[in-house]
Design brief:
The complex is a heterodimer of chains A (811) and B (183).
Chain A: E1 3-6, E2 9-12, H1 19-25, E3 49-54, E4 59-62, E5 73-75, H2 79-93, H3 110-117, E6 141-143, H4 153-161, E7 168-170, E8 177-179, H5 193-197, E9 203-205, E10 218-223, E11 232-238, E12 241-247, H6 260-263, E13 278-280, E14 283-285, H7 287-305, E15 310-313, H8 320-333, H9 344-356, H10 365-368, E16 373-377, H11 381-384, H12 386-397, E17 401-406, E18 417-420, H13 426-438, H14 448-460, H15 467-477, E19 483-487, H16 496-508, E20 515-517, H17 525-530, H18 538-546, E21 552-556, H19 560-563, H20 567-575, E22 579-584, E23 596-599, H21 603-606, E24 608-611, E25 617-620, H22 630-633, H23 655-663, H24 672-679, H25 703-707, E26 717-721, H26 735-740, E27 745-748, H27 750-756, E28 763-766, E29 773-779, E30 787-791, H28 798-810
Parallel strand pairs in A: 1-5, 15-21, 16-17, 16-19, 17-18, 19-20, 21-22, 22-23, 26-30, 27-29
Antiparallel strand pairs in A: 1-2, 3-4, 3-5, 6-9, 7-8, 10-11, 11-12, 13-14, 13-23, 24-25, 28-29
Chain B: H1 22-33, H2 42-53, H3 58-68, H4 72-79, E1 93-98, H5 101-105, H6 108-119, E2 132-137, E3 149-151, E4 154-156, H7 161-177
Parallel strand pairs in B: 1-2
Antiparallel strand pairs in B: 1-3, 3-4
Helix pairs in contact in B: 2-3, 3-4
The chains are: A alpha/beta (811), B alpha+beta (183).
């Protein structure tokens, strides 16, 4: 822990800290272009020069290349260093175009700031500048190579940090060019970060191009709700339109970056189709009319059927406020327990997964970067939680071994061992891992009771093709120092997460550190679980609707049709209701069927609290007052000269307010913390992780592990799982992301394809599908044989797809 | 790295098609298999394919990428870094003029002016008859023969204008004798 002096102020930093980082701790921002905390030092741009006055190093040196050492005295305002920086900036500016007025980076450009602060206010160079041709890099990132100052941040980020190989640096000398081999859409699902890390305007945000300057935007800290990781965002909005998500540094969750799904998902909030008015039987009404009618009709139904005749449906994308008020509505009125997902299979896994987590075994996303072995079972990071893939990449770069056990051909931007295991065998696979960890091991001691249980486990665990390999990995886990255990919650069955918990608990005894990480299906699935939602399943609710026990259904921010697979059955059940109330901020199949519709605010307007997949309580601040954008009302010209007291299209209210109106009538946002306190054991604070009641460390039931898959062992199974683009209900409205969404396809092992008579590239037209659905066949021998893998896709006819696949499975 | 002149000078270039012999591909595959990191041989593979085609066409780059297990961009990153790998078609005789210190002191500028005048091209250009491409190169280590140039990687120097004329004449005659240009 050396202590050094920077600009006459002492600072003590850990060994190995660079001087540039040490200065940051004093609030001194030494100029930099190539240095980035996530990418490290390369000493290429020469602009972070400082003067070393006393100590082991003397003279002008690059502060990003020098480790802080005891007794150093550093002056950032050393005349030689200041002079050097000034000239370096002048050099970098030689070829930089004077196009700041038409450059989107202008206003938040590091080069602009450095040029001014470095004292190079006027150009002396009057010669010709080198120019480059720009490339079309796809719908997300705008390329403008002439502005480049060769800091190499983009190629280092793209290739080294993210592990993608289609953008880099070509040429030499003044011909140095950052781009692709050929123009074309960037392959990395993290490409949007280029716009954040480029210190000037070579890469700028394409969808929001020419929309405003940094200072024009209303900006507020927010949380990404497009997967369960809950990355920190800064949202920019202008003219009542959220138009940009930027990564906001969060040391525990996302670090410096976010994925493209999160970055470009905002379009749903300002789409022209967004429902902004209350509707009664499909006709526009005022909010008051709709709300009154809702209360009256619900009261009337309650009178007839009792409180059991009214059911509540929430969602994993609602804020904790909304979820909490739904829970309160249930407790105050006695209406049915709110259900937060129509996907019962996932709800069961989530429930068993979150009951496995406790205060000591949960780890944060960035902690995975420090693991030396990461075991993923039934988890596909790139599809389900993209930033997890980036964390795995960092672990792997540091020498970590990554192992995926999955029926899907999981791809990661880093080297990993993949073991294909069919979905039904995942629990058995983890059992083999446990056996491998315990069998010849001297590291893990078992007591007599555990010995017995282990014996039973060994006897009852079926043999599967990958058993030997899995046992070897299980054994290797006992020699790891820092193993992390990741388990998905959509593909595995509910037995898997507790088994992973057991494996982690056993391995914990032989290592320094270990933990569990469970990506969840939705942004606030954890919240729904905390508020008691995991017990209420959708299937019984639907049955009660069909049986006529439930006469009214209140659906809050959930398009049941995209979650529930049998769309026809769902439609018939909804048809039989006396009253269907829908509250949402996006148009959907269920919105159109509502008897009463209430428009809700988005996260940009209402803000709210969210619990991410590890239970971290995070806050989204409201960014804008809701309403139609004047970019739209004006149609490109001056907005209508019409005087009114309200904002056009500003009707929507936060969903919790409508729910509160039914329960207690309160109008202030509820304080979620006491509500959470009731549900949880420990207190909660913003940014901190909530603690679930400590889970038992019992050995889970192993009856099913021995049972083997239901039905024919050689049968086929259909797996629908999240893809990077097209699966998340809100991001699916983004037109730029739609461009990146691949054709809908089914992936199978070549053996399976042979059985079905499919060839790669075949197009299968799904009969009786509306809208007509075509499925492209892809072969991948890394998939488990017998698995038909399709992405979850919003807006496709899943009923027809499943019918067709079921017919295949039956044959 | 000086290599014997390849047979490509006598062959017509068809940039869009690959007529690389099976034997060459097999040889490259074996060489790649023998090293720990295929990347080590990136330059050798690019050179081999370039010797075959006269330049590293897009198709040749893609083939190099496939052989080496690299992305097209990763091959391009290397290809565009090196002076002796050409990503565009070049003339039958590639003239590299050394523009480093010793040659400059010994009159490199005169050599360049004379070549420009005689060939009616500037750096980076190829003569209309497809015979000569003129390129600058940094120090080639023939300071003892300054001012020096390379023609198809063979060194010539010390040079005067008259010696240059003889040299150009010699190559023109050779080309006339053995036709088969690569334009």
């Amino acid at each position: 822990m050396p202590t050094l002096t920077i600009d006459n102020r002492p600072v003590t930093v850990p060994d190995g800290t660079k001087v540039i980082t040490a200065a940051e701790q004093l609030g001194i921002m030494i100029p930099r272009f190539c240095y980035h905390p996530a990418l490290g030092s390369v000493g290429a741009c020469r602009v972070c020069a400082v003067g070393f006055k006393e100590g082991p190093i003397k003279g002008v040196e690059m502060s990003c290349m020098v480790d802080a050492q005891e007794g150093m005295v550093v002056a950032t305002d050393d005349p030689d260093a200041v002079d050097l920086r000034k000239h370096v900036i002048e050099l970098l500016m030689l070829h930089h175009p004077h196009d700041c007025p038409v450059c989107d980076e202008g206003g938040h450009c590091l080069l602009q700031d450095m040029t001014i602060s470095g004292g190079h206010g006027r150009r002396r160079y009057a010669g010709a500048k080198r120019t480059h041709l720009d490339q079309d890099l796809g719908p997300l990132v705008q390329h403008e190579m002439n502005r480049c100052i060769q800091c190499y941040r983009c190629s280092r980020f793209y290739q080294q940090f993210c592990g993608y190989r289609d953008l880099g640096v070509t040429g030499i000398g003044t011909r140095v060019y950052f781009g692709r081999s050929e123009p074309g859409t960037l392959e990395s699902p993290f490409s949007g970060n280029l716009t954040d890390i480029c210190p000037t305007g070579v890469y700028t945000d394409k969808p929001s191009r020419f929309y405003g300057r940094r200072w024009d935007y209303e900006r507020a800290p927010s949380v990404c709700i497009h997967c369960s990781l809950g990355c920190s965002l800064t949202v920019s909005a202008r003219y009542r339109k959220a138009v940009r998500h930027e990564a906001r540094f969060n040391a525990q969750v996302n670090g410096h970056f976010i994925c493209d799904r999160g970055r470009y998902a905002y379009a749903y909030a300002s789409q022209p189709e967004r429902p902004r008015d209350a509707l009664i039987a499909g006709r526009p009404a005022t909010l008051a009319q709709a709300a009154t009618q809702m209360s009256e009709r619900l009261a009337a139904i309650e009178k007839g059927t009792g409180p059991d005749g009214i059911a509540l449906m929430g969602s994993a994308r609602s804020s904790l406020e909304t979820q909490a008020l739904l829970a309160r509505l249930h407790s105050e009125k006695g209406w049915r327990t709110p259900c937060f997902s129509a996907d019962d299979a996932a709800t069961r896994v989530v429930s068993s997964a979150l009951n496995t987590l406790n205060a000591t075994n949960t780890i944060a996303l960035t902690e995975i970067e420090g693991a030396d072995t990461v075991l993923l079972v039934g988890a596909d990071p790139i599809g389900e939680a993209p930033m997890l893939a980036l964390a795995l990449r960092q672990a792997q770069r540091d020498g970590s071994r990554i192992i995926t056990v999955d029926p899907r051909p999981v791809t990661l931007p880093c080297a990993h061992d993949h073991i294909a295991v069919s979905g039904d065998d995942l629990a058995t696979a983890v059992a083999h891992l446990i056996i491998g960890a315990l069998e010849p091991s001297r590291e893990i001691a078992l007591d007599a009771d555990q010995q017995d249980r282990f014996k039973t486990l060994k006897q009852e665990t079926r043999d599967i093709p990958a058993a030997a390999e899995l046992r070897a990995i299980g054994h290797a886990l006992t020699t790891a120092w820092r193993p992390a255990f990741v388990c998905g919650t959509t593909v595995p069955d509910p037995d898997v997460p507790p088994l992973m918990g057991l494996l982690q608990a056993l391995v914990q005894t032989s290592c320094m550190w270990s933990g569990l990480f469970f990506p969840l299906p939705g942004a606030n699935t954890f919240g729904a679980h905390c508020l008691g939602g995991s017990d209420a399943l959708f299937e019984p609710l639907l049955a009660a609707v069909e049986a006529g026990q439930v006469k009214a259904l209140v659906v809050v921010e959930n398009d049941l049709f995209s979650e529930y697979p049998d769309q026809q059955r769902l439609a018939a059940a909804l048809e039989s209701l006396e009253l269907l109330v829908v509250m949402d901020c996006v148009p959907s199949a269920i919105t159109a069927r509502a008897d009463i519709f209430l428009p809700t605010q988005t996260i940009y307007e209402a803000g709210g609290h969210y619990l991410n997949n590890e239970g971290r309580l995070q806050v989204a601040t409201p960014v804008i007052a809701g309403g139609l954008s004047i970019m739209d009302t004006g149609g490109g010209n001056h907005p209508p000269r019409e005087f009114r007291e309200d904002i056009p299209g500003g009707t929507p209210r936060p969903a919790w307010q409508y729910v509160a109106g039914l329960a207690t009538g309160e109008t202030d946002p509820p304080d979620v913390k006491p509500l959470l306190d009731e549900a949880l054991t420990a207190g909660v604070a913003d940014g901190e992780r909530v603690s679930l009641p400590s889970a038992s460390r019992e050995w889970p039931s192993i009856e099913r592990i021995g049972a083997g898959p239901e039905g024919d062992a050689g049968g086929l199974t259909l797996i629908e799982s999240a893809a990077t683009f097209g699966s998340e209900p809100l991001a699916a409205f983004s037109t730029v992301l739609a461009e990146l969404t691949p054709l809908f396809g089914v992936t199978v092992h070549s053996e399976t394809a042979q059985r079905l008579g499919w060839r790669a590239g075949d197009r299968i037209v799904i009969p009786d599908s509306a809208p007509a659905l075509e499925v492209v066949v892809t072969l991948d021998d890394r998939a488990a044989p017998g698995v038909l893998l399709v992405p979850r896709r919003i807006g496709i006819d899943r009923t027809a797809l499943r019918r067709y696949m079921a017919h295949l499975l039956a044959e | 790295m000086l290599r014997p002149r390849g047979a490509f000078f006598e062959r017509t270039i068809e940039p869009l098609e690959l007529h690389v012999s099976e034997a060459l591909i097999e040889k490259l595959k074996n060489e790649i298999a023998a090293v720990e990191h295929p990347r080590e041989l990136a330059v050798d593979v690019m050179m081999a394919l370039q010797d075959h085609h006269g330049y590293l066409s897009d198709a040749a780059r893609d083939q190099a990428a496939e052989l080496l297990g690299m992305s097209a961009l990763e091959v391009d990153e290397l290809a565009t870094f090196y002076t002796f790998i050409f990503r565009e078609p070049v003339g039958r005789y590639v003239i590299h003029v050394c523009d480093s210190l010793i040659c400059w002191m010994a009159g490199e500028e005169n050599i360049v002016d004379h070549l420009r005048q005689q060939l009616q091209i500037d750096f980076g250009q190829t003569t209309a008859d497809g015979l000569f491409t003129l390129l600058p190169v940094c120090c080639i280590g023939y300071c003892d023969r300054a001012p020096a140039i390379l023609v198809n990687r063979r060194v010539h120097g010390p040079l005067t204008n008259s010696r240059l004329d003889e040299l150009l004449q010699k190559y023109r005659a050779e080309a006339a004798e053995k036709p088969g240009s690569n334009v």
